[in-house]
Amino acid sequence: MAVCVAVIAKENYPLYIRSIPTENELKFHYMVHTSLDVVDEKISAMGKALVDQRELYLGLLYPTEDYKVYGYVTNSKVKFVMVVDSSNTALRDNEIRSMFRKLHNSYTDVMCNPFYNPGDRIQSSRAFDSMVTSMMIQVC
Amino acid sequence: MEGLTLSDAEQKYYSDLFSYCDIESTKKVAANGRVLELFRAAQLPNDVVLQIMELCGATRLGYFGRSQFYIALKLVAVAQSGFPLRVESINTVKDLPLPRFVASKNEQESRHAASYSSDSENQGSYSGVIPPPPGRGQVKKGSVSHDAVQPRTSADQQEPASPVVSPQQSPPTSPHTWRKHSRHPSGGNSERPLAGPGPFWSPFGEAQSGSSAGDAVWSGHSPPPPQETWVSFADTPPTSTLLTMHPASVQDQTTVRTVASATTANEIRRQSSSYDDPWKITDEQRQYYVNQFKTIQPDLNGFIPGSAAKEFFTKSKLPILELSHIWELSDFDKDGALTLDEFCAAFHLVVARKNGYDLPEKLPESLMPKLIDLEDSADVGDQPGEVGYSGSPAEAPPSKSPSMPSLNQTWPELNQSSEQWETFSERSSSSQTLTQFDSNIAPADPDTAIVHPVPIRMTPSKIHMQEMELKRTGSDHTNPTSPLLVKPSDLSEESKINSSVKFASGNTVDGYSSSDSFTSDPEQIGNNVTHQRSHSGTSPDNTAPPPPPPRPQPSHSRSSSLDMNRTFAVTTGQQQAGVVAHPPAVPPRPQPSQAPGPVVHRPVDADGLITHTSTSPQQIPEQPNFADFSQFEVFAASNVNEEQDDEAEKHPEVLPVEKASDPASSLRVAKTDSKIEEKTAASVPANVSKGTTPLAPPPKPVRRRLKSEDELRPEVDEHTQKTGVLAAVLASQPSIPRSVGKDKKAIQASIRRNKETNTVLARLNSELQQQLKDVLEERISLEVQLEQLRPFSHL
């Protein structure tokens, strides 16, 4: 259901970004980049309390005319950003949450791989790719 | 292009090759990947290959259709035979030997049980990835590493060293070998564009058995056979010759391999030898894996941490990317550590990869970690997995089995570090999907935090509490002293007051208090009150509250009499109905004290009479609401100052009051003790008690008095005349319960009253708590809604 899925590291550089190449991918990259500001804003707003109390799912970051951008941040400040087509009105918040949950689980599995150096681009995990593909294919 | 005629052997061989190259089963092979590898393996000059491609028409088409592919193969054979490449030569060249592909040769060999050279070849192809396996590998390395042109002589040289697979092998295995080998020149194979329409070519039916074709192929690899031998093989099943070759070659291979393997380190691994399941781990392999596991983790049931596994597998010199993928496949439970089964699977995958087999997308069944972790069970499990493994499109060459014994025989000769690889059949992964399996196990989602807790009703419902109290009082009804019960009956008859209900409640209270608080000190009525209050305090929290105190007479309760009455009337309808009979059980003591006082006929001491009379005037004014005693009120008002005189006059009138006053006096006493300052006659209470004991004080009138007391209190101010009387009466009351009997009754009455008060308060408390909970629920729901709306507030 997602049009673009991105995993951003703590230092705000992308670990993984993939979008449906039907459109100009650069646009999605730019949207993800601009959404990082909103993510930081949300983190800081809630960050007064303990980190544990902060919810990982950030919700709708901001909507544009065609797309909606959803955010999710882990406790290690790794951010997941998902761009969804606005025309997909049937997409409920719970579904977005479940998608982020799957993303998080797959990301954890990638982390568990001792051959993956944290901070590297996630390009070696076929499972992660297949999971992202499953999330994105549903759009079509 | 004219039709292509192929011999049966060629047909079989070509079909195998085509299916091997046709990865996607689209019946057309793109001009990259395996096809190019295949052609390169033909050891032909590049220009020759290009020419072949053009001739077969693939250049025009852009891909290799089956016909183009077959033509190309034929042309390869032609070229390899030395004939000039021409379209016509496809069919003109008779007895063309099957095209020979060095790489495929190796693959075929390796896939056969007898040919273990493949691993060396493959390993050699990885040149640098793995140190050359047994000497044969070294020999082959030279040949395999050359992509395009390779001297046939070298290939021929290799052949004796690497005997062809056993003749029984079916050609279908060749595609696997192709595939296995295609890995090697994985470099720039995809550069050749092919285009052009392919000639139609009707596939030939399979004429010969696969073995013959295979034999033909193998015969091509056999020691320097001229093309004639191939031809001869194609015509006649050269199985015999091949067979003779193979065992020797197998032996040679094994010996060579043995020698070479001795030099290798642990990085040489043995391939699975099972034909049915290319991924099956043989016992020897498993033993080797287990031993390796032990070197890292002595405990076979323990885990190998990810870092140690990383170091270990890095030694295999596989690319990190592939190692990462192997880890993904083998770490079944995604815990970052390897169990024995997982480790064996990973090891096996590394071995396979080193030998040129593509890594499966999903873990093969035979490699899946079994729930039972032991070797024996795993081996057992492997075999069922092997049986069930149906992924490989190519049938496992049965001819491997004959070579197996040889392998097994040679195994003991090998060092532990040396392993012989058996060719993997095409690894179609029919195994369950690892990742999908894990994804089905949805881990606890940290995000699913329940936003709003659902409030739970902790306290029992008020009605429930009331029912509990009803039960208690009901029980009390049965248990209380009979005289008290009698009183209500009497009082009910006499009372015409609207507050009969309260009397009932008071009666129960009296009954209760009398039964429970016999020993309570009238002076400790406060304690009783607190005790009763404690009951009521805990009752809201207990589903089975302690026996609620008998409902105090509404008149004497501490809380506003009106509320109490209302509460009682509303909430304890049933109870009060039952209690109605009882309220008059405890007539106010002062009245009886007063009543008997003036009563002459009463066997009461004059003091008692006096006391009674003294109290009666006090009590009388407390009963302004009582129709019966209104006159007494007047009397009381008038006789406050003249106790003695009033006594005499009131006697006949107080008499009826006396009865009622006795029980009420106790209550009054209780009340007055707590509320009214004590006054004068200490003997009065004594007398009152004395006076009341012989009496059967009608409870109802007493209750009325009590009630009227409460009601009158606010009214006291209104009635100036009565205030003094009241004060006097009330003042006298505290002194009344000094007497023993009066004390008890007064205490009991007070206790009852207090208990009733407590229960009422408890009910109120529970109701309020319930309301509080409801409000909290509403608040929480509103907060939830607010939070839901909040994301949009940022926009």
Automatic annotation (TrEMBL), chain A:
Belongs to the TRAPP small subunits family. Sedlin subfamily. It is found in: Cytoplasm, Perinuclear region; Endoplasmic reticulum; Golgi apparatus. One of its GO terms (cellular component) is perinuclear region of cytoplasm. Keywords: Cytoplasm, Endoplasmic reticulum, ER-Golgi transport, Golgi apparatus, Transport. One of its GO terms (biological process) is endoplasmic reticulum to Golgi vesicle-mediated transport. It holds the Pfam family Sedlin_N. This is Trafficking protein particle complex subunit 2-like protein. InterPro entries: Longin-like_dom_sf, Sedlin, TRAPPC2L. Its main location: cytoplasm. It comes from the Eukaryota. It comes from Odobenus rosmarus divergens.
From TrEMBL, chain B:
Residues 670-680, 707-720 have a biased composition (Basic and acidic residues). Residues 115-126, 407-433, 504-542, 562-573, 611-622 have a biased composition (Polar residues). GO terms for cellular component: cytosol; plasma membrane. One of its GO terms (biological process) is endosomal transport. It comes from the Eukaryota. PANTHER family: EH DOMAIN, RALBP1-ASSOCIATED EPS DOMAIN-CONTAINING PROTEIN 1. This is RalBP1-associated Eps domain-containing protein 1 isoform X2. The gene is REPS1.
